[in-house]
Amino acid sequence: MKRPSLGFWTVLSLVVGNMIGAGIFMLPSSLATYGSLSLIGWGVTVVGVILIALVFAKLSSLLPTAGGPYAYCRSGFGDFIGFQIAWTYWLSLWIGSAATIAGLIGYLSFFFPEIATNSSLSLLLGVGITWGLTVIQLISLQAAGFFQILTTVLKISPLILLVIFGIPHINCDNFTVFNPSGESDIMAILNVCILTMWAFVGLESGTVPAENIENAQKVIPRATIVGTLIVAIIYMVVSALIIGLVPNDVLQTSPTPFVIAAKTVFGHYGALFVALAAMVAAVGSLNGIFMLQAQVPLAAAKDRLFPQHFGKTTKSGVPAFGLIITATFITIALLMNQSKSLVEVFKFMITLATLSVLITYLFSVLSELMLFLERPDKFKKRDLVGALALSIPAFLYILFAMIGSGKEVMMWGAFLFFASTPLYVLVRWQNRK
To answer: What is the C-alpha to C-alpha distance for residues 406 and 194, in angstroms, rounded to an integer?
Structure first.
């Protein structure tokens, strides 16, 4: 059977769609603690993610194989680090999915206010969304790819309309609230960087299903760079707009900041439209993440670094076991956070997911340098200079962003990272048998 092929527009929509999800629609509330200082943090993050995107673009042309960060780290550092990165990246995807579902439910509460106060109802909705999207993935990769293009177009359109018509309504006094957090400006920027980095998680999305992409060596780098630049521009403009439209004290407590902004510009019906767009954004982002979160364990299982069941696929090439296990973990994560408010759940989950994915980025940006060391005959000296010029500043930015995650999240991140070691031993034992 012919392997399903993904073209440039599908890959671009995967990159853009995975980044523009519930994150941008929920983040203004999480960032309101830092006032207009958050725009400086956005700027720092944009520079950092562009560097990371350039590194991934280069790696995808050197190693156009499935698995993305996992494949690069395994090639550069060997099996054990490759396994750790597959595990950590997989964790970041399903933890991030739980956060995105919390954001989606927050916007649903605009239409049905009882959702915000009824934890059982919000949990039931979250579980339904999780398994509904899993069923879409189980149908076929091509069906999921078409759905991704559709949702990407639908969620970008209202953002553009809000920017065009919202500028005349900006209140410049809102920007005078610079840093109400009480922390130093440097520490505040660190905290903003870890939160805003979440909004860019997914820039590597095009590299993961490389074996299903037509002309992967050209399509993946182009889609990765173009997609990251598109999203960076949208984020910076929209974030400044929301600060200008919504007073800081309102922004800090609202789970639906874009609805408030849209109501200021378009009235009640405009708010309804933007709330719907936010839900489409969340669903589209989840669809893209669900496409990826079974592909990484699949690639690792093919290399005999993950339990063999993750490597099994249906006749249409869908990794059904990985999808079902991942959906089960998302359900457990939703159950564990049932007692917390939607804003609290979203903030904690995105910080933990971002820290996890930053670990994979950290090793990925160094993988290119390791490839130069391991295979010097395949590269020229000028290639090494270019790799150093990108990898070193990208590495420093990632360390800078990780510091902002805080002690509690760092503790959980370290625990989850090292908890995988017994699983690696088990897999090796199975391989030996």
So the answer is: 9
Query: In the prediction, which pLDDT does 404 show?
Result: 80
The pLDDT, as a whole number, for residue 40 is 93
Tokens of 353: 């997911």
**What parts of the chain have a pLDDT lower than 50?**
1-2
* pLDDT of 34: 92
Q: For the chain, which domains are there?
A: 8-432 (1.20.1740.10)
Is residue 25 within 8 Å of 109, Cβ to Cβ? no
Over the chain, what HEC string results?
A: CCCCCECHHHHHHHHHHHHCCHHHHHHHHHHHHHHHHHHHHHHHHHHHHHHHHHHHHHHHHHCCCCCCHHHHHHHHHCHHHHHHHHHHHHHHHHHHHHHHHHHHHHHHHHHCCHHHHCHHHHHHHHHHHHHHHHHHHHHCHHHHHHHHHHHHHHHHHHHHHHHHHHHHHCCHHHHHCCCCCCCCHHHHHHHHHHHHHHHHCCCCHHHCCHHHECCHHHHHHHHHHHHHHHHHHHHHHHHHHHHHHCCHHHHHHCCCHHHHHHHHHHCHHHHHHHHHHHHHHHHHHHHHHHHHHCHHHHHHHHCCCCCHHHHCCCCCCCCHHHHHHHHHHHHHHHHHCCCCCHHHHHHHHHHHHHHHHHHHHHHHHHHHHHHHHHCHHHCCHHHHHHHHHHHHHHHHHHHHHHHCCCHHHHHHHHHHHHCCHHHHHHHHHHHHC
Global pTM reads 0.78
